[in-house]
């Protein structure tokens, strides 16, 4: 876990007038930053120890509506406080905001000061602890895709999100010439994230007009999740300052490619020096440990799909022939598969889970992948042979849940996740999934109006 700014450096910067604002942020269930803007001197004097927030923040939907039915927080319990405990190792300057620093906070119980079990960061920390107890480090990297629009969020809203102008008029996948048009935002994004302690490897055009991908260097799981949420938040802020808008929706347009968040993951020794998935003598150069880890993720993929695809819209992305997977299997360097082996024959060998969309919460997604991988190790599962060919056309392969309703059903029944995460935690997120479905089921969509207003 690392920002780029020590607390002593912050104190000196505040004294010198270089920093006047500190953002103290938790991560909500949707993977968004929520918190407070502190006068920097006050943060340095006292708030660096702890501050407080309303516990409805982890019992609300994406519209910030308090959701009935949660055990952890409700009107009957009065929606009290929880503790926001700054993790000072995550302190960093935020170059795109004037004189501003940011710190990620853990969410603690107001009375016991223990991690609040259903907070996303605590869920991932629990799984990371399980790795540590076995002498493992989990290295993760999430690749984020998004659409960049030559619109502001206000202009997009006035157009009712229809007929939006993308930053480039046609697909520029890997094309340098067309993506030069997008450099006003993308150059700032690369450089200012790097300056904020989030090492960027590259950006590129993706398979949609104005669609981008940005790759952050891999890190230990918790650090990578922190980088992911700061990157998403910062990307929107940078774009807005340039008169542009960004969308991380899994599928904003039926006719265009969806936005993914592929997750690369592997295990290394506790000192971070020895790759535990690499074995020159093993099949596919993937060690027995790596094969068991991958087999666990395959076995339990249906059960944890919700953690990779948490919204109604998420499931619109799973369409054949769009580079988004529809089947649960693994392959060697095959982009039609749900899981892809990367770095074969090298120390960087790893599994890439291709199921997740850019709308996922990285803490929940990483935690689910770790839980499934460890289950595979504990059960000593055998990895099936890799699939070869076009997975979209393979009718006998197990399918990724097609709808939120399907994914919620498999999530509800998961004994593995109940054991790994805790029964109350799993119940909390099952309730979240059911609420999302309930909200959608009672709404009238534009598609229904267009199709039926006159013709029904």
UniProtKB/TrEMBL annotation:
A Pfam family per the record: Gln-synt_C
Top-rank EC class of the record's enzyme: ligase
Keywords, sorted A to Z: ATP-binding, Ligase, Nitrogen fixation, Nucleotide-binding
Residues annotated as domain GS catalytic: 120-456
PROSITE patterns reported for this sequence: GS_BETA_GRASP, GS_CATALYTIC
Cofactors, names only: Mg(2+)
GO molecular function: ligase activity
Presence of keyword Amino-acid biosynthesis: no
Protein's UniProt keywords contain ATP-binding: yes
InterPro entries: Gln_synt_N, Gln_synt_N_sf, Gln_synth/guanido_kin_cat_dom, Gln_synth_cat_dom
Source organism superkingdom: Bacteria
Domain GS beta-grasp: 17-115
The protein's Enzyme Commission number: 6.3.1.-
Family that this chain belongs to: Belongs to the glutamine synthetase family.
Function: Catalyzes the ATP-dependent biosynthesis of glutamine from glutamate and ammonia.
PANTHER family with a match to the protein in the record: GAMMA-GLUTAMYLPUTRESCINE SYNTHETASE, TYPE-1 GLUTAMINE SYNTHETASE 2
Record-given protein name: Glutamine synthetase family protein
Source species taxonomy: Bacteria, Pseudomonadati, Pseudomonadota, Alphaproteobacteria, Hyphomicrobiales
């Amino acid at each position: 876990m690392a920002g780029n700014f020590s607390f002593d450096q912050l104190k000196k910067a505040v004294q010198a007038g270089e920093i006047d604002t500190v953002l103290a942020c938790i991560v909500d269930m949707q993977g968004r930053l929520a918190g407070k803007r502190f006068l920097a001197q006050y943060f340095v004097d006292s708030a660096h120890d702890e501050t407080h927030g309303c516990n409805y923040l982890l019992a609300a939907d994406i519209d910030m509506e308090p959701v009935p039915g949660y055990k952890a927080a409700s009107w009957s319990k009065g929606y009290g406080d929880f503790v926001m405990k700054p993790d000072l190792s995550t302190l960093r300057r935020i170059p795109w905001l004037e004189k501003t620093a940011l710190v990620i906070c853990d969410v603690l119980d107001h009375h016991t000061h223990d991690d609040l079990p259903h907070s996303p960061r605590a869920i991932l920390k629990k799984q990371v602890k399980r790795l540590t107890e076995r002498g493992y480090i989990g290295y993760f990297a999430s690749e984020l895709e998004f659409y960049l629009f030559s619109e502001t969020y206000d202009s997009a809203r006035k157009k009712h999100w229809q007929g939006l102008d993308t930053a480039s008029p046609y697909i520029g996948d890997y094309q340098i010439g067309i993506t030069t048009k997008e450099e006003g935002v993308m150059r700032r994004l690369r450089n200012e994230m790097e300056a904020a302690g989030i090492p960027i490897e590259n950006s590129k055009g993706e398979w949609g007009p104005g669609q981008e991908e940005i790759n952050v260097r891999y890190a230990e799981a918790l650090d990578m999740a922190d980088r992911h949420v700061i990157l998403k938040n910062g990307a929107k802020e940078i774009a807005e300052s340039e008169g542009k808008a960004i969308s991380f929706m899994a599928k904003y347009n039926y006719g265009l490619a969806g936005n993914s968040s592929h997750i690369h993951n592997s295990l290394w020794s506790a000192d971070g020096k020895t790759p535990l998935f690499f074995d020159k003598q093993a099949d596919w150069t993937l060690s027995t440990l790596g094969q068991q880890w991958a087999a666990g993720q395959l076995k339990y993929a249906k059960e944890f799909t919700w953690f990779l695809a948490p919204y109604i819209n998420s499931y619109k992305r799973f369409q054949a022939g769009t580079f988004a997977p529809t089947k649960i299997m693994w392959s060697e360097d095959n982009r039609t598969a749900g899981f892809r082996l990367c770095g074969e024959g090298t120390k960087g060998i790893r599994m890439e889970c291709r199921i997740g969309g850019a709308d996922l919460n990285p803490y929940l997604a990483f935690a689910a992948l770790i839980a499934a991988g460890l289950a595979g190790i504990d059960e000593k599962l055998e990895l099936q042979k890799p699939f070869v060919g076009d997975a979209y056309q393979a009718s006998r392969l197990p399918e990724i849940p097609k709808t939120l309703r399907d994914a919620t059903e498999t999530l509800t029944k998961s004994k593995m996740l109940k054991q790994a995460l805790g029964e109350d935690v799993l119940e909390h997120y099952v309730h979240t999934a059911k609420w999302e479905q309930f909200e959608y089921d009672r709404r009238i969509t534009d598609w229904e109006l267009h199709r039926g207003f006159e013709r029904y």
